[in-house]
């Protein structure tokens, strides 16, 4: 993987609560019925307020590996991009979540996004493999076409110490500095 300073300036690893981030869009690790659940989904819905659940109810459904966008309501983030990760450890579906979130971001003329570690909580995807898929997929997406000109900031929001460690260990493989 070659060094690309422009790409490196776009990505960040940040540890903490995704509901506090002032970005164009935060990613929700949703369920296919788009109902308020537990984990990061529960945290996003409680901070956003009841209107978020109402907009999700109108949308109704999201397939595994796909993504849909709503407003952010009471969140500091302007929008929420809801993606449904795999429940069965399917890496292609997890890869698709990252790609669809980025596609939905740029289709809506938005330029900053924060991902959580999709599927690695309640859905049980192995943390290490998930971190490689997240970093590799985002790198490949940024390399494609002129995608790196279309976004300003992509944050990998890690919440657990294990993910903080894995992302810091693996980031240089996909985003080498020199
Ligand atoms: N900020 C950032 N990351 C968080 C936060 C937070 N406030 N809270 C948890 N995480 P999970 P899944 C991390 O379980 O595995 C829900 O019920 C968490 O540590 O939220 O995709 C949905 O409705 C983990 O790293 O999502 C679905 O039914 C990551 O977020 C199902 O759970 C994802 O863990 C989705 O399960």
Automatic annotation (TrEMBL):
MF-aspect GO terms: ADP-ribosylglutamate hydrolase activity
Pfam families: Macro
SUPFAM superfamilies: Macro domain-like
Family matches, as Gene3D superfamilies: Leucine Aminopeptidase, subunit E, domain 1
Entry's Gene Ontology cellular component terms: nucleoplasm
Top-level taxonomic group: Eukaryota
GO BP term (any one): DNA damage response
Domain named Macro: residues: 1-175
Alphabetical list of InterPro entries matching this protein: Macro_dom, Macro_dom-like
Protein name (Swiss-Prot/TrEMBL): Macro domain-like protein
Annotated source species: Anaeromyces robustus
């Amino acid at each position: 993987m070659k060094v690309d300073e422009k790409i490196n300036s776009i990505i960040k690893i940040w540890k903490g609560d995704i509901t506090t981030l002032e970005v164009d869009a935060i990613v929700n690790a949703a369920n296919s019925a788009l109902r308020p659940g537990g984990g990061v989904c529960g945290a996003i819905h409680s901070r956003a307020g009841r209107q978020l659940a109402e907009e999700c109810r109108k949308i109704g459904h999201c397939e595994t590996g796909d993504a849909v966008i709503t407003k952010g309501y009471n969140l500091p983030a302007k929008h929420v991009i809801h993606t449904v990760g795999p429940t069965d450890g399917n890496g292609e579906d997890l890869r698709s979540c990252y790609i669809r979130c980025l596609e939905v971001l740029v289709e809506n003329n938005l330029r900053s996004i924060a991902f959580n570690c999709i599927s690695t909580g309640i859905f049980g995807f192995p943390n290490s493999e998930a971190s490689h898929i997240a970093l590799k997929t985002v790198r490949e997406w940024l390399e494609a076409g002129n995608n790196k000109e279309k976004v300003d900031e992509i944050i990998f929001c890690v919440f657990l110490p294990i993910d903080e460690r894995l992302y810091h260990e693996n980031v240089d493989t996909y985003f080498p500095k020199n």
